[in-house]
From TrEMBL:
Entries under InterPro entries matching the protein: MptE-like, Put_SteA-like, SteA-like_C, TPK_catalytic_sf
Protein name as it appears in the record: Cytokinetic ring protein SteA
The encoding gene: steA
Transmembrane segments: 333-362
SteA-like C-terminal domain segment(s): 319-369
Alphabetical UniProt keywords: ATP-binding, Kinase, Membrane, Nucleotide-binding, Transferase, Transmembrane, Transmembrane helix
Keyword Kinase applies: yes
Domain annotation 6-hydroxymethylpterin diphosphokinase MptE-like: ranges: 156-226
Species the sequence originates in: Caldicellulosiruptor morganii
Length: 371
C-alpha cells in the first residue's frame, strides 16, 4: 500500500521545489521529459501520480524510461477532472488498484508497466520520420519570420557585466546539466568565465556554490535566493513587449532589464554573449535537437538554428561532457602509486640499525630452514 501527503502542481519544475521523499507528487505532465524525470529522482520519491499521459507515443520522450529504470511506480492518465479534485496537503492512499483521497474512494489506479511502456516506446520510433518532416517545415517557416532576431533588429540592453574578450558560460536546464556543471568545475575555477544562467539553471549553480553573473529568462522557475545573489537580471519578454516575469522581479524589489524578442531564453543568452564580444561561449545543458524541443512542447527550433549559425565559430557545446569522460581511478594506477610510495620508505628502513638487525635475523632463519 502507498500512502502519504499530496504535493500537487501543473508544472513539475515548480512541484519539485517543495517535494519531500515521503510525499506523493501529483502532476499533469504529458510526455515527461528527461529533466523532469531526474528532478523527481533527486527527491527520492517512490511513486508518481500523473493525471496526464506520461508517454503518449508521439515521439520517444525519455522521462518515463528513466523513472521506470529506477523502479519508480507510475500511476498514469487519471484525467484532468481527477487532478482538479486533489489539493495540496490532502492525504492519499493507493490500495492495490484503488486510490483513496482523505479516506474516500477517488478512482481506479492505472499503473504504467515497463512492458506496456516498452511496446509504445519502440512504436514511437516509427512515427519519427513523419514527425521530423513536420518539424523541419515548421523550423524553416518560422526561420523566415525570425531572421531579424540574429540580424540585430531588436535592442540589446546595456549591461554592467563586462563580457568583451572573456569566456562566457551559458547554463540551461537540459539533459545531465547538473552533472556537466560538476564536470567543468575546474574550468570555472581556473578560467573564471562570465556565467549566464537561463532561468532555473541558476539554482543548480547556487547549489554548487557558483554565483551566476546574469540570469536571463521569463523568471517562472528560478528561486528568489538565486535572484538576490546574481549581479544582473534580464527578463525575456514576448516580441510585443509583454513581460509577465517583470512583475515578480519588481515585487521582490529588484531591478531588471528587458529583452523583447522571439526565440527561447537560451537563444537570447547565447546571442547576448556573442553581441557583447565574448571570446568563447561555452554552453551547458543546451537544447539543440528535435527531441529536446518536442519535450518542451515546441514545434520547431528556428531561433536556435539561426543563433547557432551566427555564433558557431565561438560556440563550444559542453552538454553531456560528464558522460564523455567520467574520472575513474584504475586499480593498476593505485598499485603503482602504493609501490612508488613504498620504495623510498624501504630505502630509508634499510639503512637504519634496528631494521638492519631485523633483516639479518630473517636471513639467519631462512638459512636454518633451507639446510
Amino acid at each position: 500500500m502507498i500512502k502519504g501527503k499530496v504535493k500537487i502542481d501543473r508544472k513539475t519544475k515548480n512541484l519539485v521545489k517543495r517535494l519531500k521523499s515521503d510525499d506523493i507528487p501529483v502532476i499533469l505532465h504529458e510526455d515527461i521529459d528527461e529533466v523532469a524525470a531526474y528532478s523527481l529522482l533527486e527527491k527520492k520519491v517512490k511513486v508518481i501520480i500523473n493525471c496526464a499521459k506520461s508517454f503518449t507515443g508521439r515521439f520517444p520522450a525519455q522521462g518515463v524510461k528513466i523513472l521506470l529504470s529506477h523502479n519508480i511506480t507510475i500511476i498514469d492518465d487519471l484525467g484532468e477532472d481527477i487532478f482538479n479534485q486533489i489539493k495540496e496537503g490532502d492525504f492519499l492512499e493507493v490500495k492495490e488498484n484503488e486510490i483513496y483521497l482523505n479516506g474516500k474512494y477517488l478512482c481506479e489506479a492505472k499503473y504504467l508497466t515497463k512492458e506496456e511502456f516498452e511496446y509504445f516506446y519502440q512504436k514511437s520510433f516509427k512515427e519519427m520520420e513523419k514527425l521530423l518532416e513536420n518539424f523541419i517545415e515548421n523550423t524553416l517557416e518560422y526561420a523566415k519570420k525570425e531572421k531579424g532576431f540574429i540580424l540585430g533588429q531588436f535592442e540589446m540592453p546595456e549591461i554592467q557585466t563586462k563580457i568583451a574578450g572573456k569566456h562566457v558560460l551559458v547554463v540551461t536546464r537540459g539533459s545531465s546539466f547538473k552533472k556537466d556543471i560538476k564536470a567543468i568545475k575546474s574550468y570555472i575555477t581556473e578560467v573564471k568565465p562570465v556565467i549566464i544562467a537561463v532561468d532555473g539553471a541558476a539554482d543548480a549553480l547556487i547549489e554548487e556554490k557558483i554565483k551566476p553573473h546574469i540570469i536571463i529568462g521569463d523568471m517562472d522557475s528560478v528561486s528568489e535566493e538565486s535572484l538576490f545573489k546574481c549581479d544582473e537580471i534580464i527578463v525575456h519578454s514576448y516580441p510585443n513587449g509583454y513581460a509577465p516575469g517583470l512583475e515578480r522581479i519588481k515585487t521582490l524589489g529588484l531591478d531588471a532589464k528587458v529583452i523583447a524578442c522571439p526565440g527561447t531564453s537560451e537563444d537570447v543568452a547565447l546571442l547576448l554573449a556573442y553581441e557583447k564580444g565574448a571570446e568563447l561561449i561555452v554552453s551547458v545543458g543546451s537544447h539543440s535537437s528535435m527531441l529536446d524541443f518536442l519535450e518542451k512542447g515546441r514545434k520547431g527550433m528556428s531561433s536556435t538554428f539561426l543563433v547557432r549559425l551566427k555564433i558557431g565559430p565561438k560556440l563550444v557545446d559542453a552538454r553531456g561532457v560528464s558522460k564523455l569522460y567520467t574520472e575513474r581511478v584504475s586499480l593498476k594506477y593505485i598499485g603503482i602509486l602504493i609501490i612508488s610510495a613504498l620504495i623510498p620508505i624501504l630505502a630509508v628502513l634499510m639503512i637504519t640499525p634496528p631494521f638492519q638487525y631485523f633483516f639479518y635475523l630473517i636471513q639467519l632463519k631462512l638459512r636454518v630452514i633451507l639446510r
